[in-house]
Amino acid sequence: MATNVSDKGAAAVRMRGVRKAFGDNVVLDDLDLDVEPGERVVIIGPSGSGKTTILRVCMTLERPDDGTVQVGDRQLYHDERGGQLRPAGEKHIRSVRSDIGMVFQHFNLFPHMSALENIMLAPVKVHGRSKDEARERAMALLDKVGLAHAANQTPGQLSGGQKQRVAIARSLATEPAVMLFDEVTSALDPELVGEVLNVLRDIAEEGSTTMMLVTHEMGFASEVADRVVMFDQGRILESGPPSQVLRDPQEQRTKDFLGAVF
Ligand code: ADP
Questions:
Q1: Which positions carry the signal peptide feature in this UniProt record (predicted)?
Q2: Distance, CA 41 to ligand 1 centroid (Å)?
Q3: Where would you tag: which of 36, 108, 174, 199 has the fewest CB atoms within 10 A of its CB?
């Protein structure tokens, strides 16, 4: 089994002893995970195994009860008196979030803004870019996701696949070092899944963005992943290259899970 922790230089994401419970429900259980810069890690596992929670912890949307989470050289949470973990300050959190992009299952676009305006918003409001610069970059990103022609359309005028491609372009607009994708195709009609996976493939092929993806698209996972991590009950059950975890899993629960989804 490949190890989930690394002794190499600075990881893009480093988690140690991360624990998160909702009431009695322990969702992340003493989790250690490193993601190397530029690495593409696909997280798989049964519903409820903690996959979304781990991405939300990285995005500072969910505070762990214990452990450390580091993105680049920044610690996301710090110990307060009494041992409670706190997000490390509003300003700090904003700067961490600007290093990370997250794309959700439901696109979360602003419905009253055009595709272009949705993409320009964070670079202008959060990063202080000029409107001209932000517009130019947003148009380049729309072109990249095959939607240059839809720049002035609002989300209501776009298909689900198009909305998700705009959401991906939007999250790339701040040039995050780490991108988190949480089941970004699972709310789409089947015929729209391919166009979104193609965009993800393009980003993966460029190789410069660290990617953590939760997906049930196993064919896609085996194509783009450097490493597949199988979650089960808040723990990593096994992890390794797709040829190992997807084609020759060692754990019975991985075999059962893959038997159910393939
Ligand atoms: P997965 O993505 O693998 O399906 P999740 O990380 O979404 O799993 O959820 C793991 C468990 O945590 C589930 O049992 C879910 O019901 C629970 N959970 C997630 N978020 C919350 C929350 N905000 N409040 C209470 N329980 C939650």
A1: none
A2: 20
A3: 108
